[in-house]
Structure to design on (470 residues):
């Protein structure tokens, strides 16, 4: 009798575990109602950190440009973002002290190059030495490709590249914002989804954490935005 | 004799596997020399995708603002980025059609609210309905807190909030860029590192993928930027 109960108990547990792992049920249990948050999450008393740029995470974009003598240069920038859908444009903010700053003003063009995780050490290195001192394409072995659309080089080995024409320059203080119109996005076939858009699970990009200066990979799919929105409405 | 050879072979394989899993050796093998990339990675022939904003990933920021009648509103924005270190500032780009666009022009202030994964459905919902039609704080149950520093509300339940004063407005086309000076960053204690900076592993933020409209979590630590840069130099 006792043995039978234990047996039934184990079966029930296995069954429950099965349901738990089932997508649909997990979906329903994923959103905590606000009252169901754990103690840590409920403690919303805020600590003031001051006027800082510790906002995590930020993208990691490698900016390509030519100098006056046609020397290709790259630098890593995380003060960046998409800025407009029509015309498609983006922005990168650079200190005047950087070599790229002068290049973009001179050439009125730049590229954005997105690395896969396997290139993270290159993106880190490119962000820490100046094109004034070294030719970073020579020191890394990466290959500059002259864009046919804009006056800037892109990195052949990086799987996603964006070619931009400078359209506006905004002075902000220590940083200057360069707004570029996107003339084309080019991608390796290997990182495209069946629908033909860049697939984050194939690209394997990574993000930067201001404040602690680390690179982190991308994790699991949380969901489609339209599906997630419906879940919140149910609450 | 043959048996002995097989036995030695197996021992060798086991030994090799052990070395492979050792941290130090794995570290050295982590960065592929460019010649060591796999066939997919070596195929760098690019496909043109056109002038699009399919750049992945982008941050997910929930922008807080008041309307003329003091009604608090929130909207989700991924055309965003840090823009300057001194003065610390950031930017968010919004279509004129959004309710928040008018609010920011009226109040000259906004907040940025960063959600943990558990709030992803809220961030998705907030991005898909308009503050013209509903009070999103009422429909979600989230709590607006009036900032003491700027004329905008932040979300009590979100663990990282940034209070901004509008400093510049840049017209870009479909989107208007609002540049805000960061007056303060506030964080829940539970998401801070021992050094007092926001810790991405505790915050658990997520990113948006333009092109496929999905949210993804953050994955594993790839490394400190300074350490990674040294690895690239070794190559």
């Amino acid at each position: 009798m006792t043995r039978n109960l234990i047996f039934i108990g184990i079966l029930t547990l296995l069954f429950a575990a099965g349901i738990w792992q089932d997508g649909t049920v997990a979906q329903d249990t994923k959103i905590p109602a606000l009252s169901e948050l754990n103690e840590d999450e409920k403690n919303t008393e805020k600590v003031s950190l001051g006027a800082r740029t510790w906002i995590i995470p930020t993208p990691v974009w490698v900016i390509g440009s030519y100098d006056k003598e046609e020397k290709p240069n790259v630098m890593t920038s995380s003060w960046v973002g998409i800025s407009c859908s029509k015309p498609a444009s983006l922005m990168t903010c650079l200190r005047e002290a950087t070599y790229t700053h002068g290049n973009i003003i001179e050439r009125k063009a730049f590229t954005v190059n997105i690395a896969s995780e396997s290139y993270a050490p290159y993106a880190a290195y490119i962000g820490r030495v100046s094109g004034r001192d070294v030719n970073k394409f020579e020191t890394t072995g990466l290959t500059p490709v002259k864009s046919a659309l804009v006056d800037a080089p892109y990195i052949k080995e990086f799987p996603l590249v964006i070619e931009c024409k400078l359209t506006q320059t905004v002075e902000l203080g220590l940083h200057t914002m360069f707004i570029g119109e996107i003339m084309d996005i080019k991608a390796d076939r290997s990182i495209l989804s069946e629908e033909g858009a860049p697939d984050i699970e194939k690209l394997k990009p990574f993000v930067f954490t201001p404040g602690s200066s680390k690179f982190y990979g991308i994790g699991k799919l949380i969901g489609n935005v339209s599906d997630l929105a419906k879940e919140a409405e149910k609450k």
Chain A touches chain B through 120 residues (CB under 8 Å).
